[in-house]
């Protein structure tokens, strides 16, 4: 996410680090490079200029030049300005009424259908809501099937009327249906076109008038940069929507749309999509996003994700095993499954300060644990529970079974033993052990 932009800003800040003394001249040089980085990220010229001017003004006002740590102070000012540009605080969605109606609008291919299902999943799992999805994209027949498949995956019912070409009627009937079944949120997925056109705008405006949503979200593909911003403007004129959803942020290395949408349409980004899977949805936090862009990572989100997966009972069980030196390969395997649930490894690593830069050229994919898993799975249950019995011939068999090299098997066993030692040390350090860390 935003690797290119982070990289360039980092280089710009190096101008300062390279100098023993910070002067008005090299602050100006740094900010000139920052502005160039923003333009390369597809940030609109006016916004980029206003941004750097404002940072400069604040920097001089706060006596950056005479402060003890001028570089850090400048980064802090940039971070606050960047967060302000994106809206400062996370904005909630409004779910008023029973059912609360959420209308999803945007161009075709922006990720509307995927997001509709992700939102339903989010509201169900994290907010304890009882949502229903309505398939009102009547022009793309596959969209209805797509929503049904996703609905099945997340166990949320999907309302559709086969053959009906009137999205207003479908939406209204859907809401009635939800009422009778006791669903308290209805998410209406609407049709998009390839580009902004009058017919689509008229239709979405009609649906909007008819269903009176408590929240209208405009979905846009982050990778389309300034086009995303222009489309947002067009939709906002017609719909006066409440918030923006930026999808495909996982593939966006530039970040221009994220940085400029709020300043252009004065509507907050509320959610971001970071992948095709149903749990690849995040609440948008401007301050955390600014941290990430400036290479400061996003430790808060990382800890939150860890906490979501944190299971008190499991932790207690593990603690006991570690204390009695009984942590085995079965525990190790289940820990890997926990980590995998937290999300894509590269994405997680990117949340650590400075890691975005390091990770840029490293190819870690979702299969990062595949080899380790294969080796563990090739062990017998007895071997997994008693790793000390792993002798030469057993290791050879495991290597054969998993299709990995014997050296890899040895390495894993060595790493496992080292890990056990570290765990024991951390645990004897009291509540600040591994599980203490997880609790934050
Ligand atoms: P719609 O036409 O607006 O309903 O768009 P879809 O929901 O069908 O999405 C278009 C394509 O983008 C599909 O292949 C989705 O899987 C993909 N997609 C949607 N959101 C994301 C995201 O956040 N990240 C990535 N990488 N792909 C996404």
From TrEMBL:
One Pfam family it belongs to: SRP_SPB
NCBIfam families the UniProt entry points to: ffh
SUBUNIT field: Part of the signal recognition particle protein translocation system, which is composed of SRP and FtsY.
InterPro entries in the cross-refs: AAA+_ATPase, P-loop_NTPase, Signal_recog_part_SRP54_M_sf, Signal_recog_particl_SRP54_hlx, Signal_recog_particle_SRP54_M, SRP, SRP54, SRP54_GTPase_dom
Role summary: Involved in targeting and insertion of nascent membrane proteins into the cytoplasmic membrane. Binds to the hydrophobic signal sequence of the ribosome-nascent chain (RNC) as it emerges from the ribosomes. The SRP-RNC complex is then targeted to the cytoplasmic membrane where it interacts with the SRP receptor FtsY.
Protein family: Belongs to the GTP-binding SRP family. SRP54 subfamily.
Name of the molecule in the record: Signal recognition particle protein
Gene3D superfamilies, per the entry: P-loop containing nucleotide triphosphate hydrolases (3.40.50.300), Signal recognition particle SRP54, nucleotide-binding domain (1.20.120.140), Signal recognition particle, SRP54 subunit, M-domain (1.10.260.30)
GO MF annotation list: 7S RNA binding; GTP binding; GTPase activity
Family matches, as PROSITE patterns: SRP54 (PS00300)
CC per GO annotation: signal recognition particle
Sorted UniProt keywords: Cytoplasm, GTP-binding, Hydrolase, Nucleotide-binding, Ribonucleoprotein, RNA-binding, Signal recognition particle
Domain notes: Composed of three domains: the N-terminal N domain, which is responsible for interactions with the ribosome, the central G domain, which binds GTP, and the C-terminal M domain, which binds the RNA and the signal sequence of the RNC.
EC top class named in words: hydrolase
Reaction catalyzed: GTP + H2O = GDP + phosphate + H(+)
GTP-binding is among the record's keywords: yes
Superkingdom of the source species: Bacteria
Matches recorded under PANTHER family: SIGNAL RECOGNITION PARTICLE 54K PROTEIN SRP54, SIGNAL RECOGNITION PARTICLE SUBUNIT SRP54
EC numbers on record: 3.6.5.4
GO process annotations (BP): SRP-dependent cotranslational protein targeting to membrane
Stretches assigned to the SRP54-type proteins GTP-binding domain: 268-281
UniProt key word NADP: no
Residues that coordinate or bind GTP: 106-113, 189-193, 247-250
Localisation: Cytoplasm
Matches recorded under SMART domains: AAA, SRP54, SRP54_N
